[in-house]
């Protein structure tokens, strides 16, 4: 089979697009024995954005990206060995640092790359000349050399993969435009085109910058939030003498430029801080290649910086500027996976300026997902389920794309780098009030959340500008003192935290079917008394997490579920797909209907008693509906998300401002204070409470995460039971461990923020998943999974078991590598003992605070 002029009537898989990513998916499907495949291309193979591209292949990326790019490099090397002229060269790269903070950022990355098998090293200014003699190095702080980085020809690889896919049985149909993806019961049924209709079982959207529009040609519509931005690079003519073809790639992050050797000259590209949506932000024209302005005024600042870094460019005559548009996503990460709207509809798009880099690994991962029905590697950072409908709004995308391009080369300070465009979209009813009280906001799932509160803010009445996030730091955050005040309120008085962004789902049925359903999808026992609350995981067949949630039993046949903010789409879709086929159980997303306020601290009961005139002496993990102030039907739950005593209030949103006002006004007598989500995060870590997508993923289990007590293996079948049963009998090969850092000064040293390698007796055994400051311990803390040495990169099922004895052995010395410096880390199987200040230890008697006129 090969190129066809007639569209088949039926096939197993239809792939839309014939660029590098699409051809890689087709190639890997045929490599796995699936050859009933049709690839539809609206023009010619490789005529879309795969026609352009820098051809750079960089491994110095987060580990999930690196794993896929590493496979891409192996695949392209193999293609070259098979005789394909793809221009593959492992020339290496130098990653430059102009500032001390940039060098810290690079050293933090280098620490986990070295530990996990990627060769890289710090080089000084003088050494850099040995790698690249044309570089100006006097103004640099240093660089990282990565010898395994490579370059190749994007068009050649695109065509080579298509040829191999055809040889394996895939059928390519050119000049074929998709008009509609046909569905039946929200499952792929076929594809209607200008050449007729082909019925299929699977559909893969690899349509590049046309992917978003293609997603809308479906019922129900599929959201693919990615639009093209203008993306520029300059090529020079061949130098005399010709440049060494093995010159390493140069990434000058602080200048937002990259440089590589190109046909004896140079290619210079950039990721500008303020990008432009392609085609003026309107639709993609038919003759789009003729609508790409060569905007030298826009690119000139980057070109001048490139000349500063490589003075040899000053002598270049008639450099050629190419406008090479590509799809960019709202967060700068690829979009991969099966869509939540339509079963068997897969997406592989959003390559963010370099489709070649990930294409090999993405094609393999997507093919295996289609064949196996589940991902075979960790793809959570790229999941299409991380988005909501709002992310697919064209106006939102046009604004976000302006800055997401430049963020690829910006320093991402942990928890301190927020977007400036497309903000104030999803806001709690309390947003404006919190803003006036000094809140500095960040976003999660486009939801505005207070990161911390600036307690020195006096308000606009006094002429104060709204507080803003200060410049980021890898050391102690510049707003740390505000966080300590927030912690003390939670520890000694009352902390008030707006947590409205959490996803909320009501699950109900007319009969008892809802109980049977939840018992099947939950690993804990959810058949609890009415008014009870249970913390449970929802597992996949391998025992990994699909959800971590709280479930509240409202009555015999109605439950209310609370799960992490970024789980809103993923959880709803997973639960929906596991519903009984008789439609006896209904799911309703209630996220926007309730404002969630955590009332935390030892005086929270006194405050709530005064506000509600009700008995709020609730047993742990129970709830009741009470009146708070004048508001009725407020769900008061006896747990918090911080590990401290207190309550979680689920307030009908129309009452939110009133309830908050009462809490803060009456709460003044109890030391009430606003608390941000970063303080809450640190308090959770100190209590060893795991986070979704950090400690809890589809590849980690409750027994590995120390949550085995929430798994009820004695109940009837639930999804993942057999895998968990087997794991309990055989033991775990990785275990989540809490660490207290002993010889590090939080006021002087760089902090751990996540991703740092962990060593046991000098051998790499794991990676930090979450880190922060333990306010009660007064030390830096972190958590991470520990495995046996040599077992951290995966392997067979007979990996050695990790026991408590192994973790806590007397001769075990643990260290954490932070930007190249190792510090002693003391392990704990459970959270360290922290004196608990409970609500019963405070006086029940009301004692008014004397308020001076100055504070009124």
TrEMBL record:
InterPro entries per the UniProt record, alphabetical: FAD-dep_OxRdtase (IPR006076), FAD/NAD-bd_sf (IPR036188), FAO_M (IPR032503), GcvT/YgfZ/DmdA (IPR028896), GcvT/YgfZ_C (IPR029043), GcvT_C (IPR013977), GCVT_N (IPR006222), TrmE/GcvT-like (IPR027266)
Domain of life: Eukaryota
Keyword entries, A-Z: Pyruvate
Keyword ATP-binding carried by entry: no
Domain Aminomethyltransferase C-terminal: 735-827
Pfam families on file: DAO, FAO_M, GCV_T, GCV_T_C
Annotated ranges, domain FAD dependent oxidoreductase: 13-369
Gene Ontology CC: one annotated term: mitochondrion
Keyword Transcription: no
UniProt similarity note: Belongs to the GcvT family.
Protein name in the entry: Pyruvate dehydrogenase phosphatase regulatory subunit, mitochondrial
Organism expressing this protein natively: Cryptotermes secundus
Organism placement in taxonomy: Eukaryota, Metazoa, Ecdysozoa, Arthropoda, Hexapoda
Annotated gene: PDPR_0
